[in-house]
């Protein structure tokens, strides 16, 4: 009886189909959320079921900012709890989770038993989020998925000092007009995001293992800059963007087991 987790974020809707027997994913899908969270969640779930070979999920848990709009979910769980659950599943020694998504960044402290002991969140400002990187990639006319590789080729330190996304965008435009190499600007942008998130992380305390989740963890430049800021190795998984959905699927299985026990 495979179960599903659906994470409708501000930017992307993610769904996974989890097989409790093999403890592995049978299918997954990511789609842009767009303006209709319910439709995005439904489409992501259908695509993940198709990716799993046409399997129907026995229980479904919803999470993410759009979780309240998911009529098909048996239960909803906050993304803080789901990200913690997903990270501990992938990295059992998780001490802190840095989740950088499209519209917010969160730092979640995890106890040795896997429970959440504290968290802080920046959802007031785009700086230190995926949106900041999306805006900068657009200004630089590069793909967001290429930022990591391009930033790694930087040879000169360029500081992007504005913490406000709008002002930072102007700073990037003036650097471009000075003929500064795009790769150096990108590296500066990664450090700007890292410094915002590190500030948040120090408020909850940083201890090993540090696990980064969310779509931005696919950007190797941000991960490296954060490792430098925090002085800790950061663990990421190829499933990073699905981490919240994975946590939700694990809760779906827990619910199934509870129901079986009666
Ligand atoms: P949310 O849950 O808030 O919708 P996600 O955790 O799905 O956000 O992350 C979305 C962000 O991840 C995007 O804004 C983008 O900056 C970043 N992102 C998505 N795909 C990639 C990629 N392949 N490489 C680098 N960054 C990416």
Give the structure's gist in a few sentences:
This protein has helices at residues 37-51, 79-90, 130-140, 147-152, 165-177, 182-204, 220-230, 243-261, and strands at 3-8, 12-19, 24-32, 60-63, 75-76, 96-100, 105-110, 116-122, 210-213, 234-235. It has 262 residues and is α/β, with parallel strands linked by helices.
Mean pLDDT, rounded to whole units?
A: 95
Largest sheet properties: 5 strands, mixed
Shape verdict? globular
Q: Which parts are unreliable, with pLDDT below 50 for 5 consecutive residues or more?
A: none
Briefly note the structural class of the backbone. Answer: alpha/beta
Strand fraction equals: 15-25%
Features:
262 residues; alpha/beta; five-stranded mixed beta sheet; 8 helices; 10 strands; 20% strand; binds adenosine-5'-diphosphate
Report on the structure:
The chain has 262 residues and is of the alpha/beta class. It contains eight helices and ten strands. It has helices at residues 37-51, 79-90, 130-140, 147-152, 165-177, 182-204, 220-230, 243-261, and strands at 3-8, 12-19, 24-32, 60-63, 75-76, 96-100, 105-110, 116-122, 210-213, 234-235. The strands form two sheets. The protein has a five-stranded mixed beta sheet with strand order 3-2-1-4-5. The chain has a five-stranded mixed beta sheet with strand order 8-7-6-9-10, with helices on both faces. β2 (12-19) and β3 (24-32) form a beta hairpin. α2 packs across α8 (243-261), α3 (130-140) packs parallel to α5 and α3 (130-140) packs antiparallel against α6 (182-204). The radius of gyration is 19 Å and the shape is globular. The mean pLDDT is 95. The structure holds adenosine-5'-diphosphate. Adenosine-5'-diphosphate is lined by residues 9-12, 64, 101-103, 130-131, 133-134, 144-145, 214-216, 218-219, 241.
